[in-house]
Amino acid sequence: ESAFRDLERHLVDRVTRDPSGPVVVVGGGALLDRAFRHAVLQRARVITLKAPAEVLLQRLEGGHERPLLAPDPAVRLCTLLEQRMGTYAEAHACVDTDNRTVDDVVDIIAALEQRRLLCVPLGERSYVVEFCEGMASTLEDRVAACAPTRVVVVTDSNVKRARGSYVSRVVDGLAVPHVEVVLPAGERHKNGTSVSAIWDVALSSGIDRDSVVLGFGGGVVGDLAGFAASTLLRGIPFVLAPTSLLAMVDASVGGKTGFDHATGKNRIGTFHQPGAVVIDTGHLATLPEREFRAGVAEIVKIALTHDAELFESLSHWNGTTFTPSDIERAVACKAQIVAADEREQGDRALLNLGHTLGHALEAHGGFERWLHGEAVSIGTVLELRITEDLGWTRKGIAALAARRLDALGLPTSVDSAALRAAFRYVASDKKRSGSVIKWPVVEEVGRSRMGSIAISELERVAERLRLFS
Known about the structure:
Largest sheet: 7 strands, mixed
Strand content: 15-25%
Low-confidence stretches: none
Number of strands: 14
Number of helices: 19
Strand order of the largest sheet: 3-4-11-8-7-5-6
Mean pLDDT: 94
Oligomer: single chain
Distance between the termini: 68 Å
């Protein structure tokens, strides 16, 4: 079997490297190797065909001639399906073939080929990010696919005003009851009071564990909706429909949920992966320019840490214009990082570049002076200056990042008094372990590693660079 699997992987590897290559039909064991499976997911559309075990046995005519099913095909097949459940879930789509003809299945697959899908492969917690433009039906389909008994829509007052008709089309098309929670807009409302409001409406409506929370808004709404979903009835599914650029390229992927506390940003939260994400770039048409620019900061961050080509492509962005392919590339990059490190035990922490000082500035400003992306932009430049001073980052990277962020209309500096006052929040950063804090280090554009630095040393470097003077 191992020799056969090697031949199988060699063939699949070769043909999937051709973007115009053929449809490749393989057996259930072809993608068992996790690293290989994830590589194939990045360059090909992977579709799992499924059917009940009893139907599969009928198709196999008992399966007695199949060595992997010996000696008891029925028992062995059920065991294999259970063992491989996580593997088969890591796909762009799962198509139920029971009671369908071959032509029916082919038609479904052909229709899927027209959709822009990205798989976030996390075993049985896998989900698909779908990209579209101005298509409420796409979000309706994704929510309907969860087979909800009830939908709890969470949004905020700004999004309700600008995109309310869109979400109404979605829920009106679903043949299930729904309730809506409209939160006050803004980071300062990312708190326990807002979470409690979601709980109260959801529980009063009679939700069960098959109900679905739909987070329709920016990063604040998504984090609050996800946290509420993770705690209601000890966890119910949720779907995210990000409406801001920042939420699209960062907050919507990865399963981080939570809210702020008086001691700092995102101090309370959970990991709870969504059931699906729909990124409709049509929402960006009504996004205020300042909000759009704030979202670009997160794309610059992921480009600095992981993707030099993406960083270069951002030199062509102008004002609030955007390139959908760059947005998809940034999301795909984050999906790969999350797949390798779901709970931020390793390299996923690199995505915190700019966030240690950025979060501190947000907290100091009462979550009103700077938007999250603006604070991250400032924090990115400051943190790069610090790692340059320590000899960890090549000289000139901080200035390069500052020029790119400045050209994109983002702030890159802050007055020293504000930074000194904000520094007290660094001690309550989530990445702190004792008196040491984990610190993303960009060695070159697109190449990074994790380091660590004592908070006292961090303060000394800041003093040496006269960041506090």
